[in-house]
Specification:
Largest sheet of chain A: 6 strands, mixed
Strand content of chain B: 15-25%
Largest interface: B-D, 74 and 75 residues
Number of strands of chain A: 17
Low-confidence stretches of chain A: 1-7
CATH architecture of the largest domain in chain A: 3-Layer(aba) Sandwich
CATH topology of the largest domain in chain A: Dna Topoisomerase Vi A Subunit, Chain: A, domain 2
Number of domains of chain A: 2
Oligomer: heterotetramer
Largest sheet of chain B: 8 strands, mixed
Shape of chain B: globular
Low-confidence stretches of chain B: 66-72, 504-558
CATH class of the largest domain in chain A: Alpha Beta
Strand order of the largest sheet of chain B: 7-6-5-8-3-2-9-10
Number of helices of chain B: 17
Strand content of chain A: 15-25%
Number of helices of chain A: 13
Distance between the termini of chain A: 25 Å
Structural class of chain B: alpha+beta
Helix content of chain A: 40-55%
Distance between the termini of chain B: 72 Å
Order of helices and strands of chain A: HEEEEHEHHEEEEEHEEHHEHEHEHEHHEH
Mean pLDDT of chain B: 80
Radius of gyration of chain B: 30 Å
């Protein structure tokens, strides 16, 4: 059993982000009050300023910065939108409400700072992330997609109206949606010893049915494909606060491999954020070599797949270890398999045989 | 071996085109009617312009009278009447009744290229209806020569059935009446489009058209200005082949090579001629007669390879010019915005040409989506758009994204190529081969007009924005003030009004944001599309559909 | 307060389906034992045999049938696959396991009755549905997509390992996934008086945050776009067993209208099933007329949208009432809006103003 | 008005094509070299076939000797030598030195259509290199006539520079050596492709090609069978125009209209002639001389409108036939499967034609994806594929989905149209106009071969299946038994073995599933695609990319 020991982590975090947001307002206020056109400086997000940090094993933003000035006739509108977003999210956090990305787009209209389309408002949201070095979930802006979690974990909500209420994450066998409430809940107690993230809802249900949570003392997470950032943040917290190892199980193809990579090393799109990677995580399969080893039903790689392999080979995150090795295997065998392919040997084979073998194997690499 | 199986025979040029009339655009009744109309109209326009007469053309298509015992529904009488200089009595019968006899064999710009069209129309009429053609012509306004004739196709010569001289009504001109099989219902759309576009590039001409239903269309001239008539020119060295060189040598009486070059070639003066002779290792004092066959080949190669000859000038060309082109466009399309780009003369294989491109934005006459109107030597080209060099340029060479033109913008590109020799791919004169030099000029001209419409649309957008919000600062600064007050928890708004006043003073900055933006290098997304466009490898994002509409292919991100 | 009164509905249903499945096996066995090539007769699913039933307000299969014979060399393979599927799902139901559509595809390989692709196995699954007149969820085959539910409803699980365990559906504020466990749970008690289905997860979260479940005594369902059949089945059960009215709130466009239509009148694809429609349900918005009335931000209809309107106008389900009327409005104003568009007036306007007005309005139509 | 501005002049046919050589495919050095090769080779093939000689053609392209003082890198010597009947000494100079003089002006199928190609090659050589052409010919194997000559383009007549009679080596034939400007590096791909495809449709010919690098390619004949040479034919009434009718009347000496019709038109006998004269309200005893101009027009219309004339027969045509076509395909493409469909003779505008289509599946010589090889009168057509009627049919008229051919299937369609008059759109002979009658025949032939490849592929699939599992029942019945036992809870397997034995007896049912399936009407998905295809409106799901590759457009469901 392990126990999360930073009890008020989530609420501290929220206070922290509010302070940062308010500081922006204060600085702008001061400038205006001194008859100076306020400016904001942030790290450039262009591809040129993406730097791979081999220690962190993730992309980070480089030193280059850009200044947005309210004096510039072309910049005053996005500048105002950014300040508005600070104002809007400050309200969100203080009132304990959440907003989707789409809501942000529409909400701006009431304040006469409307965006021309959602990609514009999404951009400004990312700008605010960069300035604050905080993920949008920290200021209560969520995307729609959600994934699920199941396992013996007692949590305590921090969201308004549920403060202090607890729940055990085995109490609903369909799994719990990872939404704003769960992302911000405190972890109270668990008997789990590992975290297993799987790429697909079908397998998640199978794991629950087959009691993987009991048999392997695991918390199971359904990433629903490439996991949304709230789920990656959740994985990060589980790993860090509960000090549990994270294992990732994906389809046996390069997209699956890349899902594992993003969970473990972060994505290029979120190079400005550090809290979304689980560097100690391990990808346990399905590897290209497993397709051979377990004689899995497979389909040939398409031309696009092969092109993608070559792209990934140029990515520094893939420059070694299991990542490089399995890329080569995929390229060599030119095949891919799905997790469900194990059903050929019976629905439970993946749990009875594959999972324990791979967990064992993972110890040694 | 027996030799009876191979029988040799000769055919006349008329016979050749009689057998292969598809080649000249007379492939079926609809197309033939269209081709006959345009060939005769173009002859008339050429004749008028050569004499600097404002063309006044009358075209009538009717079912012929008489013939009571059969249905004539598919036989049409086509009459084309002009106010041109008329044709000399002695030339009339051959000019209209003999293939490869005509006035278009000089080295200057003309609509006709093959000296074939008018005769083909008459020949086609004859083989489908067996009716004589009636030609009336007056060169002095006093006597009118009237000739009824047919063509002896096998000998390629006219057969005059009747000939009379009548008093004329005071004006010069020519009329041709030919009876031919046609299909007006199927040809009508192209014929109407032909006249509409002809009026567009010939805005100095009056054209009256009466269709078989008796409907009259009148395209009135919109300017008194005529394009300068082209002059005949000497051949350019780069366009000279062995055969041409030999003929020039034969005809010339020049005592030496230096004189020979200066007198017989386009833009070759004493200085250049000397340089060239040095380059070709030819003695300037040598007589041209002394050149052997072998020498002529060497000389031809040298003429092609010497790079210091001047480019052909435009004196033998008669472009529309910006003003006339705009007039025609305004008249026929009545657009919100028009811009014309006229390129300097250029040359391919020694033939000079000029490209003129017009761009029209927001014409009610045009539907949404990009359209292409093509012209060559003031002829509209209506068939086989997809094979044309202009189409290729628009489809493959232009990076439309850079010009930020909305996908369904009501935009038309009008290309006009004029040359002493248009590089048609077929005798039917419907599309231009993609000669690299022509392609380049069209590309540059299209880019030029696109830059202009881009800046027009940007400016229009800016003005509208400024109109909507008299001062952009006075809109946004109060908002920034309000939000920052709330965030900072201050009790009053920051004192930002002075800043606003300072902006109010410099009102120019809000009125002309395109030019006065101080941090231009930061506003990349706006200026980048128009920079370095000539050098950069372009992405192709716009494709024409078969109907010539422009459609956007989105590039999905990874 | 209302209370579900058919306590063991779900397990009865399961027993019922097993009997039906076993009967197939018995009939086939008998034929074989008598040296007769066994056959199966089922209703034809071709478009020609789709009949609109104006009373049921849904499409049903007509009288035309087709016979699959094991004697036919071309049919023996699908025939065998169908019998295998009966065998396989009988095992699933008896062992209390579930399977995804994908799992079925792979599982067949172990029995030498492999499918060439998943569309083939999906087809056979539908054949079995037609023969049994039961939805695939009844024999424990589920698709992957899942939507969510939230509200004061006490349920009791019937799935293996959770039999008799209860849960209140307000206990997790991110909402509960509607998976196999929830679909088959018994409804024990509720204080809710209405069911509100919304098209989007973002709005679902908003409703929970704004306590729609308390303020309107509602159970809230996120259909996540066009709802999966398990969710439509859930809505049907909630409506029937709890005798609660169902209200559907979608985006203000014809696709939203069609989502509501499918929830209320069923889909053409499931014409062989009767348990997936909620004929008493009501679509409360966003109507085309609401776009005008509430001055919502909107975007113009595309050509495809307009083409789709004309298609729907020919559909008999749209031949009257609010359905026909609003189609005409969309066609006339040529605009569409999203649910999030209300954010222009503040994040809570949709709950504070629009929802009560529309619920009121729904009483009168 | 002055008349000096309009000067009339006449040009010769040579002059016309000299000025407009682009029209005949001589637009630039690469294209011109290609055109010269094919024109001379096709003349040779035509000559041999007319005399039922197995063609043996030798082609050599070299840089010419000599010329020490200049670089000749772009001047090539092209030699084409055949074993044909030779050309009569008296015709040689004009046959090669005069435009519109030739042996191709009869109404029968030939590769040449315009009587122009060989002379154009020589003319082009002359104007680019000023070198005489050398022609050697022997008609009897004893004397060899050698002529060095040039063309006087202005008068369209040959200038003989040297002429000699030498003893021949015993064989007949003709050789042409022409020096011309070319660009072999750029032309080589097309030239190689040309020979490869020529060998494909002329598998009875030996062709030897030596390229400028000295590389020899030998296309050896694969059959001794020659196609039947075409015979000259009478004109068909539907293809007769007023001019043609007038000429026939003038030449004929027939006493009355009945005889006149029977003697001068294709497939018009006594009975049909009488019916026709009744239809046209013409007295059968009337003398043709009495027909007025007006009557001739009426008669022409009647000839066009009378629908009971027999369709032209194929006697004037020389299709390859299934056997020769297959031989050529096997030889050049070595495919896994080949099928040929030969359509019956048809006609457009009175010109008979035959369409032959081959389909090749699984050739290693071809890449993946659909390819189209086009031929007309045994000439490969390599340029402008996108404008061709075959391309149009494949792209727009065929519902590929019905034939269940995998997207990347290694498939080639080979279309061959032979006719007395191929409806070329240009003198360059590169693509066929989309005449509706030709289009229909191509469509039917392509559908026919696709049906056959479909059934081949289906059968292949079935056989493989049967091979894999010797008895399908013995595989599935035990499974059904096992599952049903489990479901029914029975203790033993059902007694199904007798059933299996009964199947074992009727083994044929498992071996030929395509033909013996008893409940065919139930197996809809398999047979439906090939039913009622002619009537149904077809969906277009396959498009050619610019490169001629076939790509699939998926139709997304609602």
């Amino acid at each position: 059993m392990s126990r999360g020991d930073k009890k008020s982590q989530s609420s501290i975090r929220k206070e922290d982000v509010r302070t940062l947001i308010k500081n922006i307002g204060k600085r702008v206020y001061k400038d205006l009050d001194s008859q100076i056109f306020p400016t904001l400086t942030l790290h450039t997000r262009s591809v040129k300023n993406l730097v791979y940090d081999p220690n962190l094993r993730q992309y980070v933003l480089g030193a280059s910065t850009v200044t947005r000035s309210s004096q510039n006739i072309k910049q005053i509108r996005p500048f105002t939108q950014l300040i508005w977003l600070a104002y809007f999210t400050d309200k969100l956090v203080s009132e304990g409400k959440t907003s989707t990305l789409r809501d942000v787009f529409y909400s701006a209209q009431a304040f006469d700072v409307e965006f021309s389309d959602q990609s514009e408002s999404d951009d400004i949201i990312t700008d605010l992330e960069v300035i604050l070095s905080r993920a949008r979930e920290d200021f209560n802006v969520y995307p729609e997609e959600r994934s699920a979690i199941f396992g013996d974990l007692d949590i305590e909500y921090t969201v308004k109206g549920y403060e202090g209420r607890g729940l055990n994450l085995t109490s609903h066998p369909d799994g719990f949606l990872i939404g704003p409430s769960l992302s911000t809940a405190e972890f109270i107690d668990t008997s789990a010893e590992i975290i297993i993230a799987v790429e697909k809802g079908g397998l998640f249900t199978r794991f629950v049915e087959e009691k993987v949570h009991e048999r392997f003392k695991a918390i199971i997470i359904d990433t629903a494909g490439q996991p949304p950032r709230s789920t990656r943040y959740m994985l990060k917290r589980l790993s860090q606060e509960l000090k549990l190892p994270v294992y990732v199980m994906t389809d046996g193809d390069i997209y699956g491999e890349h899902i594992a990579m993003v969970i473990i090393s972060g994505s290029a799109n979120a190079a400005h954020l550090r809290d979304l990677a689980v560097p100690t995580g391990k990808w346990i399969g399905v590897w290209g070599s497993d397709i051979i080893k377990y004689k899995l039903p497979s389909i040939p790689l398409s031309d696009i797949d092969i092109k993608r392999v070559h792209e990934l080979k140029r990515d520094p995150r893939y420059s070694g270890g299991i990542w490089a090795k399995e890329l080569e295997v995929f390229l060599k065998i030119k095949k891919k398999s799905e997790l469900e392919a194990f059903a050929k040997y019976g629905l439970t084979t993946i749990v009875d045989k594959y999972l324990p073998e791979k967990l064992e194997e993972a110890k040694s690499y | 071996m027996p030799d009876s199986k191979t029988s040799f025979s000769e055919i006349s040029p008329s016979e050749f085109f009689y057998r292969n009339r598809d080649l000249a655009g007379f492939s079926n009744p609809a197309r033939a009617l269209y081709s006959a109309v345009r060939e005769l109209v173009e002859n008339s326009l050429d004749a008028c312009e050569a004499y600097s007469i404002h063309p006044d053309i009358y075209v009538r298509i009717t079912a012929p009278e008489g013939s009571p015992n059969r249905t004539d529904s598919n036989h049409y009488l086509l009459k084309v009447l002009d106010n041109g200089p008329g044709v000399d009595a002695k030339h009339i019968s051959r000019a209209f009744g003999r293939v490869f006899f005509g006035s278009k064999y000089e080295l200057k710009q003309a609509r006709g290229m093959f000296g074939l069209g008018g005769t083909m129309a008459i020949l086609y009429g004859q083989i489908t209806t067996n009716k004589p053609v009636v030609i009336r012509s007056s060169t002095d306004g006093k006597t009118l020569e009237v000739i009824h004739m047919m063509i002896d196709i096998q000998t390629n010569s006219p057969i005059i059935l009747r000939r009379e001289s009548l008093p004329a009504n005071g004006s010069t001109g020519t009329s041709v009446e030919v009876t031919l099989e046609g299909d007006y219902p199927r040809a009508s759309i192209k014929i109407q489009e032909y006249f509409k576009q002809t009026a567009l590039v010939n805005p100095y001409a009056n054209i009256t058209v009466v269709d078989p239903q008796g409907k009259l269309s009148f395209y009135e001239k919109a300017t008194e200005q005529l394009p300068t008539p082209p002059r005949e020119t000497l051949p350019h060295p780069h366009g000279t082949d062995v055969e041409a060189l030999r003929r020039i040598i034969k005809q010339s009486k020049d005592p030496n090579m230096l004189k020979f070059l200066c007198k017989n070639f386009h833009r070759v003066g004493d200085k250049i001629a000397r340089k060239f002779l040095d380059f070709a290792k030819i003695d300037p004092t040598m007589s041209p007669d002394q050149l052997s066959n072998e020498d002529i080949v060497t000389l031809t190669d040298a003429l092609h390879n010497f790079e210091e000859f001047l480019q052909p000038d435009g004196s033998c060309l008669s472009p529309l010019g910006e003003e006339i082109m705009k007039t025609g466009i305004m008249k026929e399309l009545d657009p919100e915005f028009v811009v014309v780009s006229v390129r300097p003369p250029a040359a391919y294989s020694g033939f000079p040409f000029i490209v003129e491109v017009g761009l029209v934005y927001g014409s009610k006459q045009l539907g949404p989506g990009l359209q292409l109107l093509r012209f060559a030597n003031r002829i509209p080209l209506l068939y086989d758009e997809g094979n044309d060099v202009s189409w290729k340029v628009m489809n493959e060479e232009i990076d439309w994204k850079r010009y930020r033109i909305p996908q369904d913008a009501p935009l038309a590109i009008i290309t006009h190529v004029c040359s002493t020799k248009i590089p048609y791919k077929t005798v039917g004169k419907e599309y231009l081969a993609d000669r690299i030099e022509v392609e380049r000029e069209i590309k540059n001209a299209i880019r030029d007009v696109l830059r202009k419409v881009y800046s027009y649309l940007s400016h229009k957008g800016s003005l509208e924005m400024v109109k909507r919000k008299t001062n952009i600062y006075s809109h946004f600064l109060p908002l920034i003030a309000k939000f920052s007050q709330d965030l900072s928890g201050a009790e009053a708004l920051p004192r930002y009004k002075k800043l606003l006043e300072s902006r109010g003073m410099k009102d120019s900055e809000t009125n002309t944001p395109e030019t006065n933006t101080p941090e231009k290098e930061q506003s990349e997304p706006d200026t980048k599309p128009l920079e370095d466009e000539e050098q950069k490898e372009e992405k192709k994002i716009l494709r024409f559909s078969k109907e010539g509409q422009l459609t956007l292919e989105e590039f999905a991100d990874e």
